[in-house]
């Protein structure tokens, strides 16, 4: 395994760690898989499904050979992340207008979001380098995840969160896990800029998506989906786009699976952004060469409130390699899709619902055929933003069919029977 700059191609060793090359390009992990045999890997990954209380019980470390083979086991900080549910639901299929849709509930991860798949690897790598202080800037999920792993690994976390437009549930979760939290006047983008400048001098190991080990861990999401589906992936993988770590990771994971012969066809990736924070979609849609950062992003799906996604070049590469597409959706479309996902019993936070909203739009626009198959990555848990639930389910907003909060005037058999 080595780190290679995506701009100038310079390579460095993974233990001589850096996020950016001197030329300003981000580093990417490059691995040599030529000694692997697909059938042997499948057997190994299947055997590990019965592991309990070893690192290989984790839905990330099950694939250690493809993620971080060099890491000595003693450094692994895990909470048996991954192993999340894969669902289908008629309500969602009808809403989108496709016959077969899968939902991968990364919301079931230990800290409630997909970040855990990447964070276990980043924190383990940091520990192997001797770091005891970890940091990130965050709209709340990266921070909850980092705070949890730092505490499990007996380390400290220092976290920078915007002082507005984020979910208090996530900040409280971060604080409760024991992080040192700085509430900052600015957005995620300002926080990243600060950490790019000062983290090294402050002796902090950065766990945001500029860290290629975070991305490396998130590749496991697509490995796990492929394994659960017996190495036959759907036609489309649909993912919400903010900082673009997940789109990048899924693209890399798909590349690995295809190169290794574990799958014989590459699915296409669809990246869905919220209209109010969609610089990547705008770049692709308007066929621009470079991304133009949005200085004041805003969407109610606060996890997507990112105007200058650090990984946009990596995500562009993933999109090209998978012949992918992008779309943007309004907050109303996101919240209505979320209501359907919640009603199906699966549930998610607003950002995740951009996938279902976007897929519906792409099917309406006939950019995706209704007879194709698709999988939406549900990135965060329904309880991550309880204000969003309160706002949506207030009397005025309630979708008629969901009026299920009944005001029983009296608690007796006859009154209740009337409702049932
Ligand atoms: C719940 C949730 N969904 C989606 C995203 C966007 O993912 P990415 O930043 O990898 O594009 C985030 C934050 O990044 C998130 O917290
Ligand atoms: N929504 C994210 C934004 C941070 O992105 P990252 O991938 O750079 O950590 C969050 O949860 O903070």
TrEMBL record:
- Cofactor dependence: pyridoxal 5'-phosphate
The keyword Amino-acid biosynthesis belongs to this UniProt entry's keyword annotation = yes
- Per the UniProt entry, the Enzyme Commission number(s) are 4.2.3.1
Record-given protein name: Threonine synthase
- Into which family does the record put it? Belongs to the threonine synthase family.
Name the PANTHER family on file.
L-THREONINE DEHYDRATASE CATABOLIC TDCB, THREONINE DEHYDRATASE, MITOCHONDRIAL-RELATED
Where's the Isoglutamyl lysine isopeptide (Lys-Gln) (interchain with Q-Cter in protein Pup) crosslink? Answer: 197
Write out the GO biological process terms: isoleucine biosynthetic process; L-serine catabolic process; L-threonine catabolic process; threonine biosynthetic process
UniProt-recorded Gene Ontology molecular function terms:
L-serine ammonia-lyase activity; threonine deaminase activity; threonine synthase activity
Question: What is the scientific name of the source organism?
Answer: Priestia veravalensis
Which reaction is catalysed here?
Answer: O-phospho-L-homoserine + H2O = L-threonine + phosphate
The family database entries (InterPro entries) matched by this protein are listed as: Ser/Thr_Dehydratase, Thr_synthase-like, Thr_Synthase_bac/arc, TrpB-like_PALP, TrpB-like_PALP_sf
Keywords, comma-separated and alphabetical: Amino-acid biosynthesis, Lyase, Pyridoxal phosphate, Threonine biosynthesis
Q: What class of enzyme is it?
A: lyase
Q: Where are the N6-(pyridoxal phosphate)lysine residues found in this chain? A: 115
Where does the source fall among the domains of life? Bacteria
Query: Which segments constitute the Tryptophan synthase beta chain-like PALP domain?
Result: 78-380
Q: Describe its function.
A: Catalyzes the gamma-elimination of phosphate from L-phosphohomoserine and the beta-addition of water to produce L-threonine.
Question: Pathway listed for it?
Answer: Amino-acid biosynthesis; L-threonine biosynthesis; L-threonine from L-aspartate: step 5/5
Tell me the residue numbers annotated for binding pyridoxal 5'-phosphate: 141, 242-246, 379
């Amino acid at each position: 395994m080595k780190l290679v700059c995506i701009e100038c191609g310079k390579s460095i060793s993974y233990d001589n760690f850096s996020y950016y090359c001197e030329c300003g390009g981000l580093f990417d992990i490059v691995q040599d898989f030529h000694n692997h045999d697909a059938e042997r890997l499948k057997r190994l990954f299947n055997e590990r499904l019965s592991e309990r209380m070893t690192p290989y019980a984790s839905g990330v470390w099950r694939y250690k050979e493809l993620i971080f083979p060099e890491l000595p086991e003693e450094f692994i900080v895990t909470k048996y992340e991954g192993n999340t549910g894969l669902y289908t639901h008629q309500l969602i299929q009808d809403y989108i207008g496709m016959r077969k849709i899968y939902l991968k509930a990364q919301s079931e991860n230990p800290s409630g979001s997909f970040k855990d798949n990447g964070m276990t690897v980043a924190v383990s790598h940091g520990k192997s380098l001797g770091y005891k202080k970890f940091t990130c800037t965050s709209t709340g999920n990266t921070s909850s995840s980092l705070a949890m792993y730092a505490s499990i690994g007996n380390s400290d976390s220092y976290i920078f969160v915007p002082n507005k437009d984020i979910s208090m549930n996530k900040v409280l979760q971060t604080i409760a896990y024991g992080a040192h939290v700085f509430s900052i006047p600015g957005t995620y983008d300002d926080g990243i800029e600060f950490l790019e400048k000062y983290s090294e001098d402050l002796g902090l190991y950065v766990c945001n998506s500029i860290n290629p080990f975070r991305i490396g861990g998130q590749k496991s999401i697509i490995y796990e989906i492929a394994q659960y589906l017996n190495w036959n992936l759907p036609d489309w993988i649909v993912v919400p786009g903010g900082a673009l770590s997940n789109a990048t990771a899924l693209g890399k994971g798909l590349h690995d699976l295809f190169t290794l012969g574990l799958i014989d066809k590459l699915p296409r990736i669809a990246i869905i952004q919220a209209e109010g924070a969609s610089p990547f979609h705008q770049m692709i849609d308007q066929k621009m060469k470079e991304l133009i950062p949005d200085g004041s992003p805003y969407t109610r799906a606060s996890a997507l409130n990112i105007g200058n996604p650090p990984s946009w070049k990596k995500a562009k590469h993933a999109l090209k390699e998978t012949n992918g597409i992008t779309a943007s959706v309004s907050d109303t479309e996101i919240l209505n899709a979320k209501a359907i996902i919640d009603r199906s019993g699966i549930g998610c936070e607003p950002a995740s619902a951009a996938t279902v909203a976007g897929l519906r739009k792409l099917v309406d626009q006939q950019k995706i055929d209704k007879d194709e198959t698709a999988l939406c990555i549900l990135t965060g848990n329904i309880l991550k933003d309880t204000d969003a639930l309160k706002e949506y389910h207030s009397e005025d907003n309630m979708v008629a069919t969901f009026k299920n909060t009944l005001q029983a005037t009296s608690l007796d058999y006859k009154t209740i029977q009337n409702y049932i």
